[in-house]
Design a protein that fits this description.
The complex is a heterodimer of chains A (about 180) and B (about 375). Chain A is mainly alpha-helical. Chain A has two domains: about 10-110, Rna Polymerase Sigma Factor, Chain: A, CATH 1.10.1740; about 120-180, Arc Repressor Mutant, subunit A, CATH 1.10.10. Chain A is built from eight helices and no strands. Chain B has about 375 residues and is an alpha+beta fold. Chain B has helices at about 5-15, 20-30, 35-75, 80-160, 180, 185-190, 325-335, 355-365, and strands spanning about 165-170, 175, 195-200, 205-215, 220-225, 250-255, 265-270, 280-285, 295-300, 305-310, 320-325, 365-370. The chains are: A mainly alpha (about 180), B alpha+beta (about 375).
Chain lengths: ~180, ~375
Amino acid sequence: MNQLKILTEEEFVEGIRQDNRQIMNRLYKIHFPMVLHFVNTNNGTEDEAKDIYQEAFIILYENLQNPDFQLNCKIKTYIYSVCRRLWLKNLYKKNKFLGKIEDFEDFILIEEDEQVDTEIHFGQMEEALNKLGEPCRTILEDYYIQKLSMNQIAEKMGYTNADNAKTQKYKCLNRLKKIIGI
Amino acid sequence: MMTNKQIEQIERYLEGQLSAKELRQFEEELSNDKFLAQEVEAHQKLRKGFDKYAKSKQLKSMLNEFHEEMAAQSKVKPSSLNFSIKLFQKKYLPTIAVAASVALIAVLSTVFTLDYIKTLEGKQYSRVQQLARELNQTKLSINDLKNTIKAQENQHSRVQKSGGTCFVISSDGYLITNYHVVKKTNQHLEGMADSLVIESMTNAQHRYRIEMIYGNKDKDIAILKISDSNFTGFGKLPYTLEKNIADLGEEVFTLAYPKDDIVYSEGTVSSKTGFDSDTTEYQVSIPVNRGNSGSPVFNSKGNIIGVITKKDKDSEGVAFALKTKELFKILEEVHPDSLKIPIVLPKSNKLAGVKRPQQIKKLQDYIFQVKVY
């Protein structure tokens, strides 16, 4: 490990807010072992640890983008708390919860996803797109995420013209709405 | 369900591609059509969701890059055996540490405790010996105390085991008291040779040794005789034993030794029958105590009408006195051969009409306290 300047808590928070890749990289590497240890001790694999760690990291990132968000504890505690809750949820889902969680860190109470009703959650969208299947998934992702034009999409997917591709896209959109339930 | 055309328009509206004219038209439609407005909102939400999803996906791919970088940096591959050992260590290190420290503490504390106990044992042993000595001393002193108490008890009983009052019925030294006052001196019954003494605490301090010559357990009467050699006789008695039955309501009084001094109490004959309607007794309303046993009951003339035998435990001021009639019967029972001198009862009364204090002054010389040693 190359010796780097030790960053303060505020510098990390600022780094995330400003999308500083280097700072986020460092932060990521600092806290992963803690989460890995936690998940391993509580009946989880490394892959599962990685999944919940990244989810927690994204939650932290997204929350920090919101100027109203107040981080009332250390980043470490926040990540641990979110991971703890996510892992508990995971265990419940798999019916593997043994009634006790081995803890290694202080943790705070994480509020149940507050914005779920008003916004489409990251996991929710991913799940819906998986359900949607091909070719809808690719069409919608190409259009809304890759921001390709309908002509490009028609060409890529082998539609005779953009209008046909558009018709298909609207069908897919309607189905997606149904899956998400809006 | 929206038509494709409608959806396209919503999309174009949200993307800001509508011309000014179209926009005006659409906005007007939007304000009138609630369903359309709802639809627009849903699409807006979807697009936001996509944006967020895109951002998250981007973020996630970045995090994956970090992760791979990290995995590459750590020299040990995640799936290797070493790693799992490391994992095992990570997982159980705290437990192992706790177990080890508990074991260590247990061993150390056992060693220390044993050591401490050894040193204690020596101290303890001497302490036990000391305690044993102290205990012995205590035992001895308790025994001493016991003996002292016993001795005191004996002394106390020597002073006066029981007591009562007796009165003279003959100038030759015959007296009457309750059998229960002197019963313990009856050698034939108890096999004990306690001595009997009568004392007078009045102006003439008399003290005579006596013996019981007859006892009637049923009537609770004992006849005593002064056996002292220096006894010379009482002279002529100033009272007699009344032959007539006392009247109900007749004023009576008694002189007795409930304590070491003579006590006068008065009352009336309240019933011609005694306890449980016993016809041999009177019921008299005289307050009596233990020492009253055997004391004579006088009528206003100063003649004896009975002998106090018992009192009613349950009601105050109720005593029972054996009638003189019964006394005569008992005196007749005494075999003349057992007596050296026959019992000659007094025949005349000198106290009738005399005031009570004068009567008592005369009478008290013939009343004695019985002391049983």
